[in-house]
Amino acid sequence: MSDQPFSLQFVAGVISDILAAAEWSEQHSADQGPWLPLTLSDDPGQSAGYVRVWQAGNASPLDRMVHMRLIAGPVETQLLFVFGRSDTCMPHLHLQVVQFPPDGCVYNVDLMPRLDAVEYPEWFTRVYGGLRRPYGQAISDPANSCSRAPANPALAVYMSPWGIASGRSDRAELERLEPQLRAYVSHYLTLATADDWAAPPGVDCAGRDERYLQLFFADELDPRAWHGVYKVVGEARGRMIKNLLRTPLRTTSQNNS
Questions:
Q1: Are 49 and 69 spatial neighbours (Cβ–Cβ below 8 Å)?
Q2: Residues 68-79: pLDDT tens digits?
Q3: Cβ count within 10 A of residue 91
Q4: Do the beta carbons of residue 56 and residue 151 sit within 8 Å?
Q5: Which of 7, 33, 49, 220 pairs as cysteine with 99 (C-beta 3.0–4.6 A)?
Q6: Domain 6-193+204-256 is in which class?
């Protein structure tokens, strides 16, 4: 049995599936370690986790995958994003597990929308139609905390109605719902095999995505989360992580070439 935290085991399995499904190139630090090693702001000799980054291949509608493992005493957070290319309408994938003792956790998964549901209903059918079954299985069972977890309205307006998010839960529930949560990832990877995610005529997907990510990762939207990150690893490193989440790698490499 692995001695890794169960939250890390879960997300590592998801990452393994994603890496196997497409072409990726990991971006390392100067010493060939994770893109950004994290240490405690008040004790730099103590590890607080890391941030790993992968860039998708040029032919992919995906841009980058980011995994942040944040260790704050007994609490461990696994934050995972897979971003579609900014100049396409490929959705973004968001998955998170926060683990706390003795075996507690909260979890969430969603495909983040890139277009308006009124103007492009067919896009929503394509992206979210395949999630009806796993979503229904997860939220229809009253034994699952995600069936009764209230959404944060400030965050919910930037997410999709198909997101699964728990209340205070535990390892047993995460493991029970693993098939449904992994179904979201599998569906997302199926979407990523298509090559017809070009921006609709007249739609500035890149501009919208820039504005969207600026708002979604703003301190003001979820101050408790971001100030918690700053407290653990320091504001400078916290803002490096935020900038990574907001900035397409492909655009960055083009601007630096």
A1: yes
A2: 999 999 999 999
A3: 26
A4: no
A5: 7
A6: alpha beta
Token code pair at residue 40? 């405690």
Helix H segments across the chain? 6-21, 121-128, 132-139, 153-156, 171-176, 178-191, 205-216, 223-233, 235-246, 249-256
Predicted TM-score (pTM) of this structure: 0.94
Strands, DSSP E only, in 90-159?
92-100, 104-112
pLDDT at residue 2 tops 80: no
With contact defined as beta carbons under 8 Å apart, do 56 and 64 qualify? yes
pLDDT digits (tens, 9 = 90+) for 102-135: 999 999 999 999 999 999 999 999 999 999 999 9
Q: Are 171 and 103 in contact (CB under 8 A)?
A: yes
Torsion of CA 166, 172, 176, 181, to 10 degrees: 40
Domain range annotation of the chain: 6-193+204-256
What the block records as the tokens of 217 is: 């990762």
- The amino acid present at 74, given as its one-letter code, is P
